[in-house]
Amino acid sequence: MGARVAVVGGGISGLAAAWELSRAAQDLTISVLEGAERVGGKLRLAEVAGHLVDVGPESVLARRPEALTLICELGLATEVIHPAPVGASIVSRGRRWPMPRGTLMGVPSDPDSVRGLLTDAEVGRLIAETLTPPIHHDVPLGAFIEQRLGAAVTDRIVEPLLAGVYAGHSRSLSLEMAVPALHRAARDGIPVLEAARAAAAAASDARGPDTPVFASLRSGVGSLPLALTRRLRERGVEVRTGTTVRELRAVDGGWVLVSGPTIDEVEELFDAVVLATPAAPTARLLRTVAPRAAQALASIEYASVAIVTIAIDSSRGELAALADSSGFLVPPAESLTIKAATFTSTKWPALHEHFPETTFVRASIGRHREEATLQRPDEELAAAALADLATVLGQPLPDPVAVHVQRWGGGLPQYAVGHRLVVDRARAGLVPGLGLGGAAYDGVGIPACVGSGRAAARRVLAHLPD
Ligand SMILES: Cc1cc2nc3c(=O)[nH]c(=O)nc-3n(C[C@H](O)[C@H](O)[C@H](O)COP(=O)(O)OP(=O)(O)OC[C@H]3O[C@@H](n4cnc5c(N)ncnc54)[C@H](O)[C@@H]3O)c2cc1C
């Protein structure tokens, strides 16, 4: 029998790690140990009004290759769908404004594109960028943009865009991790407007004007871990759910993983282990075998969020307000409960063709350190989402036929200032035979997680005998 390798955590990072292991030249016995009763972690489908829809992530960035490459390797290329070419909007001073195109995480490549969303005075301030001395360390993204382009760019554009990705606050998040191109510009003393223009030009050259930025699957992003698990099992990989790993011990020549109830512990021996769990459980597992890595990971905070999915009978005539846009983002300055809404049925025509009788809208709630917003019953969260949608759209939606509330406690890691050093410390504190993959390290998006899981698998493979 070949070497035994365990992957702890059956989210997309762990499953991608197992996929990479299953393609290795070595003869391996691979086990994925997942604590929950289902695989996928944050990728999840739920039944709403009789249809299976995403209640976690609903798209992948098509500009990065990792997720689409995996999808193609699984033979699912024909299942890939793209959003309709309708724009999203940002709420500012009580009304919706078109989302400016070609921004670098909110920094406009064309200042005129944000006129309206910002006042003329605010646009004037951003055009007259204040150049600050080159920086040689990490800084808070929001504060840096405020210094360079004025508070309005941070508060009304950067903030809602970042909340959409990290559910975090721009004045706490790392410039280096969240927008590396701006960090390089800050380091090299380049105006950020110039960096945004260069990034927009490079992106349009690389993909051509009509290539979609986002993608999904016909059966939802949540179908990806299910398909991946099927393929892994076909390849002889054991994917075991309901198995929370409670302890990791180093023994002569390998690792013992302890799972099962404390009165009936199960101990299993492995030659190598990939930990693809969120930072807190990873830190607990590493406490004795890699205390420095554990300490670094324990410092990473998470934001909790909730997704409210609203299903409306499509035959109701009052849905025109949902037809012209893929949704909107809401900056904290607007004092609404929701931070974003997606008009799912408009954004994803292929889904709407699938279930035309139901129109789906989803709202997302929750920012870092604002857990109090979520501490109320599902019905109240749903009512708040419907009330905010009515406020922004200028009319109430028809009564829903179903509403689903999905809570994601500790849903998104926060890349605080200095996050790169934390990750470097965690990796430096590891010992051969252990790998780390997941949203806490190199990016929270699905492509980054897939890349991180696969890289962790390659790391442990490098230490196994051929
Ligand atoms: C609401 C929401 C919307 C999002 N939208 C998007 C989007 O549209 N596009 C996008 O690209 N990204 C999106 N993201 C981000 C992305 O979904 C996540 O960052 C990514 O799925 C994380 O994957 P992961 O495998 O690293 O972690 P997880 O999905 O958290 O998986 C970790 C797994 O480890 C298991 N586990 C934990 N502890 C143990 C243990 N001790 N033993 C065994 N198993 C354990 C957990 O049960 C879990 O299944 C969104 C995230 C959220 C929360």
Question: Can you walk through the features of this model?
Answer:
With 466 residues, the chain is α/β, with parallel strands linked by helices. The chain folds into 3 domains: 3-42 and 222-299 and 416-461, FAD/NAD(P)-binding domain; 89-207, protoporphyrinogen ix oxidase, domain 3 (Orthogonal Bundle), CATH 1.10.3110.10; 302-413, Protoporphyrinogen oxidase, mitochondrial, domain 2 (Polyamine Oxidase, Chain A, domain 2), CATH 3.90.660. It contains 16 helices and 20 strands. The strands form 5 sheets. A 7-stranded mixed sheet has the order 8-7-16-17-18-15-19. Helix 2 (66-73) crosses helix 16 (446-461) and helix 11 (291-298) runs antiparallel to helix 15 (419-428). It is globular, with a radius of gyration of 23 Å. Residues 8-14, 33-36, 41-43, 56-60, 244-245, 276-278, 281, 305, 307, 408, 411-412, 438-439, 444-446, 449 line the site of flavin-adenine dinucleotide (FAD).
Key terms:
16 helices, alpha/beta, 466 residues, Polyamine Oxidase, Chain A, domain 2, binds flavin-adenine dinucleotide, protoporphyrinogen ix oxidase, domain 3, FAD/NAD(P)-binding domain, 7-stranded mixed beta sheet
